[in-house]
Amino acid sequence: MAEVTQDKLVGLLKKDDELTQGKAAQELGVSVGQIPMLLFCKAQVEAGVFKKAPATPKSVVQLRNSGNRWELIAARTGLGVAAVKSAYSEGGGGDPAKSYTGKGRNFAGGGTGKKPAASSGRKTAGAAGGRKTGGRQTTGSGRSTRRNPS
């Protein structure tokens, strides 16, 4: 198994500054889960993809409000993720648990305050779950429905 180091990531990022964590994993022959996001973000800063930022509460709030994820803010400021979240609160950013940048799962509840519509539990053919095979279409239950070939 290939070992992932910050130096290897920095080298890849210097060749391609738009490299994603997933593409870096492919290049290194590892799974995405083997590249911790904080390590990837630190490599982005070292490679010059992102600039360093002051480790102040005001700076942390500005970075978060600009859509930076916690790990990237930590890498840019030199603080740990927990310290970044504390600085966010201290700087007037509010509760870090309710801060959502639009990346990853939204543990803050989605912000709509509405529950999703209840599903009937039925699988339907077509784009919602059926699989197309030749002149017929199968449903999630395995039954096929005949289509007119066009």
Describe the 3D structure.
This protein is mainly α. Among the domains are: 1-50, no CATH class; 51-100. It is built from 6 helices and 3 strands; from the N terminus they run ααααααβββ. The chain has helices spanning 6-15, 21-28, 37-46, 57-65, 70-77, 81-90; strands at residues 131-133, 136-138, 144-146. The protein has a 3-stranded antiparallel β-sheet, with no helix packed on it. A hairpin with a 2-residue loop joins strand 1 and strand 2. Helix 1 (6-15) packs across helix 3, helix 3 packs across helix 5 (70-77) and helix 5 (70-77) packs across helix 6. Residues 111-133 have low confidence and may be disordered.
Give a short synopsis of this structure.
This protein is mainly alpha-helical and 150 residues long. Among the domains are: 1-50, no CATH class; 51-100.
Q: Helix segment count?
A: 6
Going across the biggest sheet, name each strand in turn.
1-2-3
Mean pLDDT: 79
**What global shape is seen?**
globular
Computed Rg = 22 Å
Q: So what's the oligomer here?
A: single chain
Secondary-structure element order, as H and E? HHHHHHEEE
Describe the biggest sheet?
3 strands, antiparallel
Helix content: 25-40%
